[in-house]
Amino acid sequence: MITQILSSEQIEEYVAKILASRQRSVADIVEQGRLLGELRKATSHGQWNPLFGRDGPLRMSVQMAYDLIKIARHEILSNPEHALDLPMSWFVLFQLSHIPAARLEKLIADGSVHCGLQRKAADILVQREIGRGRETLRGLTKKGTSPPR
Predict the structure, then answer these.
(1) Which of 23, 59, 81, 142 is deepest in the core (most CB within 10 A)?
(2) What are the residue boundaries of the structural domains of the chain, listed by start?
């Protein structure tokens, strides 16, 4: 992958767009992650990390940026058709990003995931779903079948 060195003006444009998209809606959270992903790909070594932290212009951690990128890359969380059914908390969306797309879509359809879902309930839901995935894999391997890849 070839990265280019962005000018300070180009970086400032990204910073302004990212700050403008701060948590007004699920679509804004997704847009923020998309823009951060673009910026990450476009920056060269040494340009990315200084944008973060208390003194960085984005005023967020690098880890939060990666979490937002993961939300934007999740096919269900980034689908505008589901925006009204999803919570407006970036952290809850990040928790939900650990659930495979097909399963998350079913959880939205049955009402388990909804716009009022809180952090603690989301954590319980994600842990249950991760456990369900492990049980499925255990069941497959007990039957002598290879787990899906």
Answers:
(1) 59
(2) 1-73, 84-149
CA 57 to chain centre: 21
Measured CA to CA, the distance from residue 28 to residue 13 in angstroms comes to 17
Pairwise CA distance, residues 1 & 62, whole Å = 21
Q: Which residue has the higher pLDDT, 135 or 12?
A: 12
Query: What's the whole-model pTM score?
Result: 0.78
**Over the stretch 42-96, which tens digit does the pLDDT of each residue have?**
998 899 999 999 999 999 999 999 999 999 999 999 999 999 999 999 999 999 9
Q: What is the helix (H) or strand (E) element at residue 129, kind and residue range?
A: helix 119-142
Dist. CA 122–CA 119, nearest whole Å: 5
Cα angle for residues 99, 66, 39 (degrees, 5° grid): 130
- C-alpha distances in angstroms, 146 versus 99, 103, 135? 21, 21, 14
User: For residue 146, what are its two tokens?
Assistant: 């290879």
* Token output for 38: 């673009």
Shortest CA distance to 32 belongs to which of 21, 24, 44, 45? 21
